[in-house]
């Protein structure tokens, strides 16, 4: 059901709409279904990464994407050091990789890469073998805003896996497409 405020003219009632608090905002964002990616950054022992649903296409000419990263995460200083990252869009059989890179089992840094197969990319970041698609990026710009930084990635290379389905996240849980047509 629409809220009373949504039913009225936004133009007329703009001043009456209360400021949204963090809890209300989070509640709203739970409705935003998203693809699940793992962002990899760094090389050798100096590598880490994080699970993200904030990946979005920015432009096709030139190929560019954006991702929001929390500046308290271990990936933020690594991104600033390495100036490159890879977006690994997960397939629906890769939920365990999402859990690792979200830090759910306590794994940190290079440990998060254990248990899955990776290959090195031109930028130095690692790509998850059998990801739905991988997007190797140079960090063009990082815009620090509020708690996060918006990473603008200039795409250097992509790979794709055919015949697999995406891993999705919605209402606080991983989801799978159940009525796909192939
Ligand atoms: C489904 C899902 C989506 C997430 N999306 C993001 C995101 O877009 N940006 C972000 O900074 N953290 C996101 N996180 C949280 C990070 O994955 C998590 O805080 C991070 O891996 C912890 O980092 P650290 O232990 O390296 O500091 C998400 C977590 C989950 C489970």
Automatic annotation (TrEMBL):
Pfam families: Flavin_Reduct (PF01613). It comes from Kaistia dalseonensis. InterPro entries: Flavin_Rdtase-like_dom, NADH-dep_flavin_reductase, Split_barrel_FMN-bd. The keyword Transcription does not apply. Signal peptide: none annotated. Residues 29-176 form the Flavin reductase like domain. This is Flavin reductase (DIM6/NTAB) family NADH-FMN oxidoreductase RutF. Belongs to the non-flavoprotein flavin reductase family. The keyword Transit peptide does not apply. Keywords: Oxidoreductase.
């Amino acid at each position: 059901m629409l809220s009373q405020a949504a039913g009225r003219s936004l133009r007329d009632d703009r001043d009456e709409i209360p400021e949204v608090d963090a809890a209300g905002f989070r509640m709203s964002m739970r409705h935003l279904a998203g693809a699940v990616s793992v962002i990899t950054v760094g090389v050798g022992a100096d590598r880490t990464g994080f699970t993200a649903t904030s990946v979005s296409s920015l432009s096709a000419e030139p190929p560019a994407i954006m991702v929001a990263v929390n500046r308290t995460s271990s990936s933020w200083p690594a991104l600033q050091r390495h100036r490159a990252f890879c977006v690994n869009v997960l397939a629906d059989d890769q939920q365990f990789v999402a859990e690792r890179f979200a830090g759910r089992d306590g794994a940190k840094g290079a440990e998060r890469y254990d248990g899955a197969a990776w290959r090195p990319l031109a930028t130095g970041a690692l790509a998850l073998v059998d990801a739905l698609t991988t997007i190797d990026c140079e960090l063009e710009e990082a815009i620090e805003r509020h708690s996060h930084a918006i990473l603008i990635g200039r795409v250097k290379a992509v790979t794709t896996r055919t015949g697999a389905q995406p891993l999705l996240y919605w209402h606080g849980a991983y989801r799978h497409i159940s009525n796909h047509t192939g």
